[in-house]
Amino acid sequence: MIGKLLNLTWYQLCWLACCLGAGRGLVWLGPVCVAVLTVLHLWFVARDRTREAIMLAVAAVFGYLVDSGIVLTGFLDFPDQARLGGPSTIWMVALWVAFATTLHGFFGFLRNRYVLAGVIGLLTGGPAYYIGSRIDAVTLPRGDLIGTVVVSLVWLVALPALVWLADRTWPRDALDAPSSTSATTPKEQLA
Q1: The pTM is what?
Q2: Count of other CB atoms within 10 angstroms of residue 58
Q3: CA distance 26 to 121
Q4: What is the residue-level pLDDT of the chain in tens, covering all 191 positions?
């Protein structure tokens, strides 16, 4: 349980670094924090670093596409000081990577629970972007309420999709210490 709480804490620190950094024009701060988290996660936590790295990379591409879609439809934008890349930004992609590290950690309880993941995505996704807009990291050009609702609806689908990805890439107990005496084969671990 301590490992899962540390996982959530690290993610929250990365969220703050990404959003506060972007809001203050320090767009490099979040990606640096996420890079440190990712290295620590892969080195100390992941049993199969290659598979976990692939999952994090797929989550990064997925996040870039999701946020770029929201930007291109006019429901999300970035103030000048928070721009680095486009249509979505590098620091937002880094944030998706940081979030993906929680899928086998803190959010491991969502394994095969796609409806619950959808509800959590609906209730937390939009408000996270709204908070980001209050600290000048993002803007919701069509209004706070409409932007928050649209992003919430996107996360209604996005979080179950990420959980589905995590379910196919790694066992539920990925935050447990690597076991050198495991009697199961990698194929059995994935079943």
Answers
A1: 0.85
A2: 16
A3: 27
A4: 777 888 899 999 999 999 999 999 999 999 999 999 999 888 887 677 888 899 999 999 999 999 999 999 999 999 998 988 889 999 999 999 999 999 988 998 999 999 999 999 999 999 999 999 999 999 999 999 999 999 999 999 999 999 999 988 865 444 444 433 344 444 443 43
